């Protein structure tokens, strides 16, 4: 499952929100959005006019990524998309802190380990979200024998 939202095809006149993503620009206020309007649509790209930035910006139709290799701006259909992105990043970081190398550093029953019940619950959520079967583990802890 992708973390990036599925977006509708852009339309001329559609209101969108632009965020500077270079380090210097967003350091003080990383959630600052500027209003923009889609002004032109071509076969692969569309143009957004952002008066506050004073530029026309081009983005790809399929992913809404900035055209060219320099992603100086990110584009959002709504302010809620930005909030969701920041929440995703924060949750992923928390999970990574717990599970990054989880099995190698944590001993069964230690105070810093999660319970087996919690791990099973997390596994079932992950499996359901990815559409996998969690019951068919190829490695059940005995070295694959």
Helix content: 25-40%
Mean pLDDT: 79
Strand order of the largest sheet: 4-3-2-1-5
Low-confidence stretches: 138-145
Global morphology: elongated
Beta content: 15-25%
Record field, number of beta strands = 5
SSE succession: EHEEEEHHH
The major pleated sheet works out as: 5 strands, antiparallel
Return the structural class.
alpha+beta
Distance separating the two termini = 32 Å
Query: In angstroms, what is the radius of gyration?
Result: 21 Å
* H/I helix tally: 4
Write the layout of secondary structure elements.
Elements: E1 15-20, H1 23-26, E2 34-41, E3 45-50, E4 55-60, E5 73-76, H2 79-99, H3 102-105, H4 116-130
Antiparallel strand pairs: 1-2, 1-5, 2-3, 3-4
Overall description:
The chain is an alpha+beta fold. Among the domains are: 15-82, no CATH class; 100-130, no CATH class. It is built from 4 helices and 5 strands. It has helices at 23-26, 79-99, 102-105, 116-130; strands spanning 15-20, 34-41, 45-50, 55-60, 73-76. It has a 5-stranded antiparallel β-sheet, covered by helices on one side. The longest helix has 21 residues, at 79-99. The protein is elongated. Mean pLDDT is 79; it is low at 138-145.
Descriptive labels:
single chain, 145 residues, alpha+beta, 5-stranded antiparallel sheet, 4 helices, 5 strands, 30% helix
Give a summary of the structure in a few sentences:
The chain has 145 residues and is of the alpha+beta class. The protein is 30% helix and 21% strand.
